[in-house]
Structure formats: C-alpha cells, structure tokens
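#lab-general

N.A. 3:47 PM
ok so I finally got the sequence cleaned up, no stray characters, all 122 residues accounted for. can someone with queue access submit it? mine expired

B.Y. 3:52 PM
send it over

N.A. 3:53 PM
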Amino acid sequence: MKIINLISGPRNLSTALMYSFSQRPDTKVIDEPFYAHYLYTTGIDHPGRKETLMSMSTDINKVLDNIFNNNNCEILFLKNMAHHHQQMDLDFLENMTNLFLVRNPKQLIASFAQVISSPKMQ
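B.Y. 4:20 PM
back already:
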C-alpha cells in the first residue's frame, strides 16, 4: 500500500484535493487523522472539540496503527494540517510520500478575509 500524506495549512483547497482522490477506486482517504490528538495535547478549544474527542482517537500510536494497518486499498490518502503534527515523533513520515500544499499568500489572505473578520496570530 502506498500512503500519500498531504500536509497543508488552512484555506489551501486541501479538501478539494482530498475529494478528487476519493473518486479513485483504488484509493481510500482519511481526513485529518491527527486532529483529535492535536486538540487533546494542545488543549485548544476549537468548534466541535467535544464531538471530535469523542469520535476520534487521541492516542497517536493507535492512530498510526490504523493508518499503517489499513490494507484494504492500494493507495491511502491522508489529508492533514501542518499544525496538527505537534507533540509526536515524526519518524513515521519516512514511510509515506509527503506532499506540502502551499497556496499563493495573496489568495490565502483573501480566503481568510471571507471567513474571519478579525484574524489573530497564535
């Protein structure tokens, strides 16, 4: 099985790319598998935090086991946010094809302006 790990920032059209991969009959997609781990370890209060923590594993070892033991497809496409790769050993990345999705900053800022009226640095 080939694992493609898309590493993106927000507002980079990564979901559209994920949906295009989901149309392939030989491919399975997993949307933000590290999200619950990120929420749990950072304590950040995002919308839907409680539901996410209840529905996804916060144990990074279990998440990685699920990824690497997912043998029912030829290609496994992971859509991840770059900032979700925190507080974990990143050695597993050596066993994946890692793609970084970068959007033109002018388009990125314009996209953020449509959904966030007062953006703040974290």
